[in-house]
């Protein structure tokens, strides 16, 4: 049972790491921090492939993209994250924790599990 729980925690840490990396690399989070009322939050830009760039809108702060309403920006601000560098470090920490959880799942399944012999 422990190995399954650790495996699920590894997937959750990987997902959280990906969300923080995505927010650090693709979003306008630092611009949004300067003016949260005037600048809309956006974490995605549609590339100009076959006319799909029409989905990009001006969200303020010299940034074009799809406006998001997920609440990640507000959560990061409430946590005290003030730059993309901190988001990168959290993403790296999430990857490390995911690897630790994978190791813990392996350990509990292969080494620490009671033997039925």
UniProtKB/TrEMBL annotation:
Keywords: Membrane, Transmembrane, Transmembrane helix. It comes from Attheya septentrionalis. InterPro entries: PSI_PsaA/B (IPR001280), PSI_PsaA/B_sf (IPR036408). The chain crosses the membrane at residues 6-26, 87-109. It is found in: Plastid, Chloroplast thylakoid membrane. It comes from the Eukaryota. It is a multi-pass membrane protein. One of its GO terms (cellular component) is chloroplast thylakoid membrane. SUPFAM superfamilies: Photosystem I subunits PsaA/PsaB. This is Uncharacterized protein. GO terms for biological process: photosynthesis. PANTHER family: OUTER MEMBRANE PROTEIN, OMPA-RELATED, PHOTOSYSTEM I P700 CHLOROPHYLL A APOPROTEIN A1-RELATED. The keyword Transmembrane applies. The keyword Transmembrane helix applies. It holds the Pfam family PsaA_PsaB.
């Amino acid at each position: 049972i422990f190995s399954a729980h650790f495996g699920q925690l590894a997937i959750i840490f990987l997902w959280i790491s990906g969300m923080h990396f995505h927010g650090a690399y693709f979003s306008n989070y630092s611009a949004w921090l300067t003016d949260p009322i005037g600048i809309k939050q956006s974490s995605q830009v549609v590339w100009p492939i076959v006319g799909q760039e029409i989905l990009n809108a001006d969200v303020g702060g010299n940034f074009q993209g799809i406006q998001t309403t997920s609440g990640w920006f507000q959560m990061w601000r409430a946590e005290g994250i003030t730059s993309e560098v901190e988001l990168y470090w959290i993403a790296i920490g999430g990857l490390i924790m995911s690897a630790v959880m994978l190791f813990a799942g392996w350990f509990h399944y292969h080494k620490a599990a009671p033997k039925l012999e």
